[in-house]
Specification:
By secondary structure, the protein is α/β, with parallel strands linked by helices. Among the domains are: 12-64, N-terminal domain of TfIIb (Single Sheet); 726-864, Beta Barrel (Barwin-like endoglucanases). The protein has 25 helices and 32 strands. Helix 7 packs antiparallel against helix 10 (330-337). The longest helix has 18 residues, at 94-111.
Length: 868
């Protein structure tokens, strides 16, 4: 392939890079003609997307050449800030912009560096803003109020040893999706999942989708099961009841050897432990006595009542069985979820039978369990105050089937990393934990947002705005800082934040209650934003610095993190990068290089480079590590990280296959253990969360000592439970419907809405810019198809045009994507669609204090817009 990249923009060539329009980071080829990108296509050589792309990728050309794109720095002249308030921008020079930013940040650092907040969702480049924050001296270096799932990631860490999870579509024959459109244009490995789902369906796999909305996935499923929003956890526990107490269909041997089901529990709810070793005890059916859980040849009981040294106790499974039988009979679950009990019983039986408990498969000369049935879930399940237990309850179904990290089941992404960098293993109690972040960052946790939730983290007075110290068992914590920025005294934060560095996170638009977000931002004295375009949050900035488009920059590498965003199961490891295809507009640079300029001016470049070494792993190689007194370009950093990964791959020379013509490294998973680690690691998944008891008590003590009597610790329970959302307990007479949201595959977060090509497609579809309502519900309200309506909650009021359908739960109103945008410069997106977040409360009463999950439920009333 000819690459004329260095011919000053002349000629016609295809340049390899990666599209970053979503987490998938597809390998692409960008056609450049006379210095302009004129086409995008997939790179067929790539092992991930295999030459396929989606519409977002081609549409990103229009983002580059949008006439509203920023090309010069802006300074605010209007001191007033608010939603819809004109900042009255004044164009300024680059040097003036950097001088102002440096001066403001220097002042903050002199007074108290903790007053700086770094707010960025540049997720594949998280190393740089975190490194800047550490060098500056602030613990508040990763704030992005996204909503993908505090409960979700925590549940996956605990059961799979990984950040994310996907169904093994290569072998699965029964796929149950709850609040998810996996395999239908969304998720973490979009194009691979689309192909995998198509192949599985072609093979005869059955797909059942549980969702209030007949989504893209539900529309193509064998069966769609409408459900009342926020009740998936109750449904899951009803299904667990059917498995355990009705059908008796569960993997008994798996529960004995790979979970804490046999661990003996005393009257306090805690493990019965050996008096000398402290190890949890199980009841050995062979010897008829209590032994340590890891005693070699014992046959542990998972049912029964026993006595150990005069203490009455039961196996954890017995407690779960009794708990489920008492609290989740099908008639109660039907009343909670609106799903008929016969349907619950039937799909549970289908799922269990499809799992083929006890079956095996031969792979690479080894015999592995085969469990070709799995439950997968995502945002729709976790977006509730009790989101963690909603997710954990669905994972209980997978655990009972014995399908964790084995062929056909639910796979973590990826519990065992390439080249032995990280491994899932058992802790002192035998429970799953991981050295992932310590291994990938030279001994540091790689991100404040993503952390292993087990063993629990220490509890103390909060030191950072995300309140990590008060959420010791949360695996994901990016958005709680909004509350502490708004009201630091409430959380005993000993300083008041004053400045923010902002890039790639539009919290005013994408989080609950724009007014709350606006009030929070107004409390900051100075905001510098790096942006391609002025959006709803950038309108609150004091200085705006233009950022280069991804097709104009280098990334630190890689574009697709194996720990979370790379397909698990069979296949290769692969590492892609992003490189420039064309030059940015004059003066415009990669925001991270500008950040490094500021670090140099502040005198913290050495600290920045040291943290970058730790974060990228360069600290592991003296020859590649960044020197403290050198300011590097992103290309130089990228080249060094490529050499490091190449060395791990065993390449000699290390980067022999990574050139400007070939922008990814690829290598086989060396053992079947890297693809399906579940049969190999010595670690157990929990069905009983014993560690929550002591942790909850510690959180209670600390919060009471700090005067936070309102901090609820009642969620710290060892047994899975469903709790209603706050809005479930509201009077539903006036606000009689629930508002729900569904993802649109052609949209990536919020930034695609202002793309003219995407907009053209949205206008051609029936639902994207409209509001969905069930036909029967509309008839009762006198609403007709095409009517303009007002949708009002206790938090806000929006309008939209109704489209009637039977593809939505009768109790719901459906709003799609993150639409209804209003920023002045969004000439395409402005005013199109309906903004769901304006209907959602942003209040501490909506936060689950176990994982910090914010509830996205709201009751609404709908009426015709008679004034339109």
């Amino acid at each position: 392939m000819k690459n004329d990249k260095h011919q000053d923009g002349a000629g016609d060539s295809w340049i390899p890079t990666s599209c970053t329009g979503c987490f998938n980071a597809c390998a692409i080829l960008a056609r450049r003609n006379d210095g302009k990108i004129v086409d995008i296509k997939g790179d067929r050589r790539a092992p991930s997307s295999k030459g396929k792309i989606c519409g977002k990728s081609k549409a990103r050309i229009a983002d580059m050449y949008n006439p509203k794109r920023l090309t010069v720095p802006l300074r605010r002249t209007n001191p007033e800030k608010g939603i819809g308030v004109d900042p009255m921008w004044k164009e300024i020079g680059w040097e003036e912009a950097i001088d102002v930013v440096t001066s403001k940040l220097a002042q903050v650092r002199k007074e108290d560096p903790r007053k700086l907040v770094v707010a960025s969702f540049d997720i594949h480049n998280y190393t740089a803003p975190q490194s800047f924050g550490v060098a500056f001296g602030t613990p508040n270096y990763e704030f992005y109020p996204v909503s993908c799932g505090n409960g979700l990631h925590t549940a996956f860490f605990l059961t799979l040893g990984a950040l994310n999870a996907e169904v093994d579509l290569d072998h699965c024959n029964y796929i149950l999706l709850a609040g998810s459109q996996y395999g239908h244009g969304v998720n973490n490995n979009t194009l691979e999942a689309i192909q995998g789902m198509a192949d599985a369906r072609r093979r005869g796999a059955k797909l059942v989708v549980i969702d209030p909305v007949c989504s893209y996935a539900a529309a193509k499923a064998d069966e769609w099961v409408p459900i009342r929003p926020g009740t998936d956890g109750a449904l899951a526990l009803g299904m667990v009841n059917v498995l355990i107490n009705n059908l008796g269909l569960f993997d008994r041997e798996y529960l004995k050897g790979k979970t804490n089901a046999p661990y003996l529990i005393d009257g306090s709810g805690k493990y019965v432990r050996h008096p000398d070793t402290g190890k949890p005890l199980v009841w050995d059916g062979k010897e008829n006595r209590a032994v340590e859980f890891d005693s070699g040849s014992c046959d542990p009981a998972i049912e029964g009542n026993f006595e150990v040294v005069g203490v009455a106790c039961q196996p954890a499974f017995q407690l779960l069985r009794e708990h489920i039988r008492e609290h989740y009979p099908l008639e109660k679950v039907e009343a909670i979820t609106t799903v008929p009990r016969a349907t619950i019983a039937r799909i549970t039986k289908e799922l269990a039978e499809a799992a083929r408990i006890g079956s095996t498969i031969e792979m690479e000369g080894k015999t592995l369990p085969l469990r070709p049935a799995a439950v997968e879930f995502k945002r729709g399940v976790t977006h509730h105050k009790n989101g963690f237990f909603n997710c954990f309850s669905l994972m209980l179904l997978n655990t009972l089937l014995g399908n964790l990290n084995v062929p056909g089941g639910i796979l973590g992404t990826n519990p065992h990393g390439p080249f032995g960098i990280w491994r899932t293993h058992g802790d002192k109690d035998g429970m799953i934990t991981t050295n992932l972040y310590q291994a990938t960052s030279g001994g540091r946790d790689s991100m404040v947002a993503f952390m292993s939730p087990y063993p629990p983290n220490p509890v103390s007075e909060p030191k950072s705005l995300n309140l990590r110290d008060l959420f010791p068992v949360s695996g994901f914590l990016p958005g709680t800082a909004a509350f502490a920025i708004h009201d630091p005294e409430k959380f005993n934060i000993p300083y008041r934040p004053e400045a923010m560095i902002l890039c790639r996170t539009n919290m005013v638009l994408t989080n609950n209650s724009p007014q709350f977000q606006a009030d929070m931002l107004r409390k900051l004295k100075f905001i510098v934003a790096f942006a391609l375009k002025v959006d709803e949050t950038v309108e609150f900035a004091d200085i705006v610095i233009p950022d280069a488009h991804d097709f104009e920059k280098y990334w630190a590498f890689p574009a697709n993190l194996p720990a979370g965003f790379q397909k698990p199961g069979l296949g290769d490891w692969y590492f892609q990068t992003v490189q420039p295809v064309v030059e940015p507009p004059p003066g415009v640079r990669n925001w991270i290089e500008v950040l490094m300029d500021i670090a140099e001016r502040l005198g913290i470049l050495g600290e920045f480079n040291a943290e970058m070494n730790r974060m990228t792993g360069l600290v592991l190689n003296d020859g590649l590590a960044l020197k403290p007194d050198v300011k590097y370009s992103m290309k130089e950093i990228r080249d060094r990280t490529v050499l490091l990964v190449g060395a791990m791959c065993g390449e000699d020379p290390a980067a022999a296959r990574f050139t400007e013509e070939h922008t990814f490294l690829q290598g086989p998973k060396k053992t079947i253990e890297e693809s399906y680690p579940g049969a190999f690691y010595d670690a157990r998944a929990p069905i009983y969360l014993e560690h929550l008891i002591d942790v909850g008590e510690e959180v209670r003590k600390v919060t009471r000592r700090l005067g936070m009597d309102w901090w609820d610790t009642s969620h710290y329970n060892p047994l899975a439970e469903w709790r209603p959302c706050p809005v479930h307990e509201e009077d539903g007479k006036e606000y009689d419907l629930y508002v729900v949201n569904s993802r649109l595959p052609l949209h990536g977060q919020s930034y695609t809405a202002d793309n003219p090509w995407v907009d053209d497609i949205c206008k051609r579809t029936r639902m994207d810019y409209n509001v969905a309502m069930h036909k029967g519900t509309a008839i009762r309200k006198g609403i007709k198809d095409g009517d303009l309506v007002w949708i009002e909650s206790r938090a806000g009021k929006v309008n939209g045009r109704v489209r009637l359908t039977e593809g939505i739960h009768p109790e719901c109103v459906g709003i799609f994507g993150v639409l209804g945008q209003w920023a002045k410069d969004k000439v395409i997106a402005r005013g199109k669609g309906t903004h769901i977040n304006s209907l959602l409360k942003h209040d501490w009463s909506m936060v689950g204090t176990l994982t910090g999950q914010l509830d996205f439920c709201a009751r609404v009333k709908v009426s015709r817009d008679t004034g339109s």
